[in-house]
Amino acid sequence: MINLKILYQNLLKDHGPQGWWPINNKYHPGDYSYPKNDSQRFEICIGAILTQNTSWKNVERALDNLRKKKLLDARKLIIADDQLIKNCIKPAGYFNQKAKKLKIFAEFFIKLKKRIPIRDELLSLWGIGKETADSILLYAYDQPIFVIDTYTRKFLLNQNIIKEKELNHMTYEDIKLFFQENLPKDYKLFQEYHALIVQYGKNLQNN
DNA sequence: AGCCAGGCTACCG
DNA sequence: CGGTAGCATGGC
Length: 207
Known about the structure:
The chain is mainly α. It has twelve helices and no strands.
C-alpha cells in the first residue's frame, strides 16, 4: 500500500505551503481560515469557473477587472450587462461561455443562501463539471473532497504510484476515491495536497 | 509560430 | 459507455 501521507510530507517539504485558494489575488500560505465570509466564498467560485483550461495568471486579470466593476458580488453580477461581463473576463478566454456560466452560478449562489451546496446540485448547473464542483466544495466550503485534475494523473504516473495501464482506465471518481480512502478526511490536508500537486506538475515542465 | 493553461458541453460511433 | 471538436486569451 502506497503511503500518500509520506508523499504529501515530501511535497510540502520541497515546495512549502501554497496558500490556496488565493483571495483578492493573494495567497495565504499555512492559513486555512479562508474564506472568511460569503464575499470571499463567491470569489473562489468565480475563480474556479474562470480557470477552466486557463492559466491562473489570466484569471487574475479577469478577477481584477470584475472587482473594479464591483461585479465580484452575486447580486450585482446577475443584473450586470452581458457585454460588460465579457469585457471584464476576456483575458481568461472562452468569454462567451464563461459569462453565461458566471451568471448561472451567481443565480444559484443567491438561492443557496448560507447553505452548503450538494455536489449533484453543482453538477446540474450548466458549466460546472466534476473538477470545478469539487474545487468549489473543497476551497469555498471546506468540504473534505479531493480534487482531481490533469496534474494529478501526471503526479500518480511520475511517482510510480499507479501504472499507466491501470491509470488509463480509471475514471475521475476512481482516482478521487483512491486519495480519499488512503488519507485522513481532513479538508486542510486536501486543500494543500491538491495545490502541491499542481505546483509539482508545473515544476516538472520547467525541468 | 505553435502548444499549453488549475475543463466543460455537445455530439459522435 | 469512451473519445473528441470547439471554445479564446496570453505566455513562452
